[in-house]
Amino acid sequence: MDRLDRTQEVAGYLAAAGLAPNLIFALHAGAWVDRRGRRRRTMIAADLGRAGLLATIPLAYTLDVLTLEQLYVVAFLMGTLSVLFFVSYTTLFVSLVPRERYIEGESILNGSRALSFVAGPSVGGLLVQILTAPIALVADAVSYVCSALLLGRISPTEPPIEQSERGHVGAGMRFILRSPIVRASLAATATINFFNFVFFALFILYATRTLDVEPGTLGVILGSGAVGGVIGSLVTGSLGRRVGIGPAFLLGCVLFPAPLVLVPLADGPRPLVLALLFLAEFGLGLGVMILDISVGAIFAALIPDSLRARVSGAYLAVNYGVRPLGSLAGGALGSAIGLRPTLWIATVGAIAGVLWLLPSPVARLRALPETAK
To answer: How do the pLDDT tens digits run along the chain, 373 residues long?
Structure first.
């Protein structure tokens, strides 16, 4: 096994360790947060915990005791705290943002996240070059501390605990199964995510081995996705007003995976190949932003506060739980039938995810839905 293969293998295991808590804990995390309340405190504790976990890496590196096992444990615990943060965040969002500004609020939050993906790799690369990778993680740890401090400055109104369903783990999943909008949305996004992870399990290998793209050039190509995300955050609001929030969501479900068809098609002169890869990543970033903002606003309006964390936990368990399964399937298919055929299967499968939405009420949503009873 050469160095690239070994590096990708370790990166895959670390990614799986970070995603596993979504499958294991998300349902229970949502029930725990709804039962306990105090979501802002939970988010602050999750931020500080993640900062502490990250800080152990440069400390262990400085003491010359850093091991791969520690990285796996840190990734798993970071993923666990991220689950708690996410299921708490969804309730805080609706307590701070007026209903008529849900789309705008989602656009700002997702746009700032995409903007950080544009600037982050450059700053991170500079820090790694100056300080080495483990020490550069100190900056990441500090960012979580800053997030905790900013959360401490807000005073959201938290919903009362629903005594009749207090802590009931299955309530979130039952709501999803009862709601045609949420059920179809979960089926669509989980399908897209599964096949996208099939795709990206092989993308770097395909780009570097088959298309002979240098790692530095590939980094620039991957960064174009963040640029597409920033633009997506700027246009989703006007798009939703023009065509309706439901059709905007459908469009995002198509635009997210469809540009990836350019990757297995990429052939010919080198400038053409690089241009196609750039367009694929840019289009993916644009599409996923339209998708995320639209579905986030729909769910913010539709899901009742008393169930919000549990529904978020159940949704997370499925939507994120399929991701490591997609990576495993991608590796197995790539070995069995080759890289390019697997990329074609993944692209077509991801685009087909939108079919779940066509017969559902989502396709007819012009405005945000009323809160479910």
So the answer is: 444 455 556 766 787 888 889 888 888 888 888 777 788 899 999 999 999 999 998 899 888 898 889 999 999 999 999 999 988 888 888 888 888 889 998 988 887 766 655 544 444 444 445 555 566 678 788 889 998 998 888 877 666 665 555 547 788 899 999 999 999 999 999 999 999 999 998 898 899 889 998 877 888 888 888 889 989 999 999 999 999 999 999 999 999 999 999 999 998 899 999 999 999 999 999 999 999 999 999 999 999 988 888 899 999 999 988 988 898 888 889 889 999 999 999 999 999 999 999 999 999 999 999 988 7
Prediction pTM value: 0.85
The rounded distance, in Å, linking the Cα atoms of 104 and 307 is 23
CB of 206 closer than 8 Å to CB of 343: yes
Helices 215-243 and 270-302 meet at what angle, rounded to 10? 40
- With b for 16 or more beta-carbon neighbours within 10 A and e for fewer, the 295-331 pattern comes to bbbbbbbbbebbbbbbbbbbbbbbbbbbbbbbbebbb
Token pair 């991957």 is found at: 222
Distance CA 150, CA 257 (A): 35
Rg (CA), the chain: 21
Domains and CATH numbers, the chain: 3-155+170-364 (1.20.1250.20)
CA angle 50, 19, 16 (to 5 degrees): 110
